[in-house]
Amino acid sequence: xxxxxxxxxxxxxxxxxxxxxxxxxxxxxxxxxxxxxxxxxxxxxxxxxxxxxxxxxxxxxxxxxxxxxxxxxxxxxxxxxxxxxxxxxxxxxxxxxxxxxxxxxxxxxxxxxxxxxxxxxxx
Amino acid sequence: xxxxxxxxxxxxxxxxxxxxxxxxxxxxxxxxxxxxxxxxxxxxxxxxxxxxxxxxxxxxxxxxxxxxxxxxxxxxxxxxxxxxxxxxxxxxxxxxxxxxxxxxxxxxxxxxxxxxxxxxxxxxxxxxxxxxxxxxxxxxxxxxxxxxxxxxxxxxxxxxxxxxxxxxxxxxxxxxxxxxxxxxxxxxxxxxxxxxxxxxxxxxxxxxxxxxxxxxxxxxxxxxxxxxxxxxxxxxxxxxxxxxxx
Lengths: 123, 246
What we know:
heterodimer, A: alpha/beta, Rossmann fold, five-stranded parallel sheet, B: Heat Shock Protein 90
């Protein structure tokens, strides 16, 4: 059982629903948003333990959010799991300085991979 | 400091944005619906879902499949555009758009979105190929559904422009406005259809490129208008002279 709070930033509504379904079943407290800018406000409000982040979002991209999070001491330490169709184009080496702990390839992932990733990054 | 689009493009190695719509761009556009279908299918294989939830997932799978198929069909049509015979004829855009609204309403309903045609009191006629025009409006509508603010309506609007010489069909969405620099760049590119066209950072621009090709083939053009609370993607086509007879 877990009481961790997770923020999902994913602009595909049905995919966000799917993540919500999987994580809620494992008792994570899940909040979803489709916008990077809305996510910034939500992070202040709910103080998530981890963020699951798509890269290409409506409006601003994930990189806007990553830069913003690194601007503050408290948000800069939130572990981030990138979940993207562009996993081939990204490397953990390039993104680890932004708090990214894991990159999941949407095209290959299993539903349980989200849970495993969270278990890896959260105590 | 925020990542600019240029930085983002560089980050992706520019592979999605250079040159005419490539296999890479097509693959990118198809990845999203296919990845979603796969996730939903995998979820269905788990046995602890309620019947209502299973039905909801199945519906999402079929609607997502249809969206992906529309894109592949448009892509095929785009590639074969010069080889095929497309009949140009007077078309009542209101009737055509009513059909599109009927066809896409299940998809919009499933997303809890209102999709409607803003009716005109006086009907118009334009000169176009029915299939290509239908594909353009479907593509704009798909685009608006996916990228506009949730819980906002999507509207198709029909109007006369250019002293009655042009009929404009627009798909209006509500949400964050396109940044001014994106709009300027977009309008520049819309006048040069040799390149893929980006309206949204997460899009390869393939859909707009195809719509632009279809419009050019019908002696028309596509464009975008920025509003304070959203955007209108439109296609301008020649009004039919038979308009005067209506």
